[in-house]
Design a protein that fits this description.
five-stranded mixed beta sheet, 23% strand, alpha/beta, homodimer
């Protein structure tokens, strides 16, 4: 039996999973990332995590084909060097080459959003669909694009920034420097902010009952209040879903994928979210896709998507 | 020496080019499409055109590897069947299979916009750039997307409809059923209509001198008047270029191609058009593409793009 190791490297924790040939996670270890610390220290800690997860499963280290790492930042997949990683405080970080030296095996490094998207393709909601787009509604909108079973990386590994496509010309300012980016209207954060703004206008909204105070509002708040019959919450939600749908219809007209998977905490809302989104996207794209509209589903792997995608990176090329 | 034949099938004329292994057009014949007529008649005429162009070059028909056809309509590249072709009045037209029977060789059929885009990639402005996007500013906005040297076709051959991605949510009505599509603001037709509207507001605009009457206005009119110093034309043009740039920045954040090629009659404006577009796109995407911004150039093949792309379709898969 051969194995790979997939690492989900975050600003708070780092998780390594030992993954078998059938893409089962046979062992998993999570440790604090303990930032700030020098890059060399973190690399040693990552190498130790790899050894520990392998030993804990009683697997000899020689059975590891390669290690894949998903990390924040702008990653050059070809060199394994991370040009810019503001969260970690390193620049031009040679994570891939350094880890290859430390581990003595091939190491792939990929952007964490791409790695997680590839995980959903290889082992999750998009399994078997060789043309898939994974959209994560979080603080921003992350996207991972799989075409012909391979990750779309772009000429310099900056493709797939669908969250920063403008859908409202001259609209809300985005921290990327543009105005009217999709994520400024359709991320979970945008929903939260829209809900907060609507609550300030309507002191009688049930959103005030769902959340104790305005800072406790999150993307779930308007869903909960709308389910209780709150008209203001319903209005906020309908408006937000329109923007989600608008961007997804753009995704369809751009890629015509077989499936779009929606990730992020808000995807736990299930059909309450997915039903209206499907209706919106179908209405806006039926002229092109005829009867064969792309499937729209929720992601299924949650926190394991990053580990599984990283563990399968050799197949993403 | 081996050859292929590329056919550019339009509603008015049909052109067949005999193309050698080095992608030179060694002979070309154009005849009227003569619509309306039964599909079987048109197929016979296409077969005759293929024989005629081959004979005119003194090439034996056995030297033809395959025939490629670029045609309007929604083409299933895999089957060669055209589901919907309103211009021609046929539906579920088995053009590919029928032509294979008539010609006795392999026949590829592709959407005309995709074929022309592939022509620019294989032999024109995007030659050598394996990740390229071709944007044609015409009545609408056509787009052809080449990734890894292959055409992006989508799950059911409906990908690459960048003209129908919304950049102004709830904006101008589009005949695709959406509102605020890119092509409603940034096509050559949109520029023409914006110029006409501005002329009605400003009877002193030099655009009235450039065009004899309002129906004679086209996308070149505001360029000519702006070059003569007309402020109204300049304003119309600047606004239009903003919308062209906004959509191109979306293209960059989506695909990060090595090059974007601009086609359509308006691309003859050269640097007057391309300079401001480059500035706009660079300003809106520099956070992602760092120093390596995609090239933005004009298409070079003009009417030959369709013939050359069709003649090379076997390489597009």
């Amino acid at each position: 039996m051969h194995y790979t190791i997939g690492i989900d490297l975050g600003g708070t924790t780092m998780t390594a999973g030992l993954v078998d040939e059938k893409l089962n996670i046979v062992g998993k270890l999570t440790r604090p990332t303990s930032l700030p610390r020098p890059a060399a220290d973190l690399e040693e800690a990552l190498a130790d995590l790899c050894r520990a997860v392998t030993e804990s499963c009683g697997v000899p280290y020689t059975a590891i084909d390669y290690v894949g790492i998903g990390t924040p930042g702008s990653v050059d997949f070809n060199t394994g060097i991370i040009g810019n990683n503001p969260n970690f405080g390193y620049s031009n970080w040679a994570l891939g080459p350094d880890m290859q030296d430390l581990l003595g095996c091939k190491v792939y490094v990929e952007n964490d959003a791409n790695a997680a998207a590839f995980g959903e393709y290889i082992a999750g909601a998009a399994k078997g669909c060789r043309n898939a787009v994974i959209i994560t509604l979080g603080t921003g909108i992350g996207s991972g694009i799989i075409l012909g079973g391979k990750l779309l990386r772009g000429f310099n590994y900056a493709a797939g920034e669908m969250g920063h496509t403008v859908i409202v010309k001259d609209g809300r300012h985005c921290n990327c420097g543009r105005r009217g980016c999709w994520e400024r209207y359709a991320s979970a954060r945008a929903l939260t902010e829209d809900a907060q703004a609507a609550m300030q206008e309507d002191r009688g909204s049930l959103m005030w009952k769902v959340a104790d105070h305005i800072e406790a509002v999150n993307a779930k708040t308007p869903f909960d209040a709308a389910a209780m019959g709150d008209a203001t919450a319903k209005r906020v939600l309908d408006n937000w879903i329109d923007y989600v749908g608008c961007g997804l219809a753009n995704v369809v007209n751009t890629f015509e994928p077989e499936i779009i998977c929606i990730g992020g905490g808000v995807s736990a809302q299930g059909e309450v979210l997915l039903g209206p989104i499907r209706d919106y996207v179908l209405a806006e794209t039926h002229n092109f896709t005829s009867e064969k509209a792309p499937l729209i589903r929720a992601c299924t792997l949650r926190n394991d998507a990053g580990v599984l995608g990283a563990a399968a990176l050799a197949e993403s090329i």
